[in-house]
Amino acid sequence: QIRTDIGWDSYQQQLDTKARKQFKESQRKLQKLEQDHGAVRYIEHTSSAEVLQRVFEWKSQQCRETGVTDYFSYAWTTALIRKLHAIQDRDFQGVLSCLYVGDRLAAVHFGMRTDRVWHFWFPAYDHEFAEYSPGLILLYRIIRSAAESGMRHIDLGKGVSTYKER
């Protein structure tokens, strides 16, 4: 979990050495990305079906490349996510966050949130931007959004990944 109820500035200050190094590196990559390809723009939520389809495509590709089950190849999975994406109630929302470089989608995340918790579920990114770590840049933007909106924390879910550990 990432605690966000302490605010964005406090979040940055409480990072340990490894996490602080990762954060600084992501900021360096963000500057390089903007220098090489243009302005970066964050969208907290989009209702775009096309962007949601990109999540399915990029995650399916990742599953095939890593040899894990492609859960997006099942119609019930994508139908469920589409239904969750359409829910925009005050107490529960499907959230589709985006990072654009110019007009080009560089990273995207689909998850869910309540008024207190943001569930980080399916991040994906355009592999042509891999050297800039757009997925990590997007995660930091999501953390900032959660902190600024008063959410308690971001739940990263089960599993071990470098970004989760840091």
Characterize this entry briefly.
The chain has 166 residues and is an alpha+beta fold. Helices cover 46% and strands 22% of the residues. Strand 4 and strand 5 (117-125) form a beta hairpin.
Number of helices: 6
Element-by-element helix/strand order = EHHEHHEEEHEH
C-alpha Rg, in Å?
16 Å
Assess the beta-strand content as a share of residues: 15-25%
Describe the biggest sheet?
A: 6 strands, mixed
Tell me the distance between the termini: 11 Å
Class of secondary structure makeup: alpha+beta
**Strands across the major sheet, in which order?**
1-6-5-4-3-2
Could you name the ranges where pLDDT drops below 50 across 5 or more consecutive residues? none
Mean pLDDT: 91
Helix content: 40-55%
Q: How many strands in all? A: 6
- Envelope shape: globular
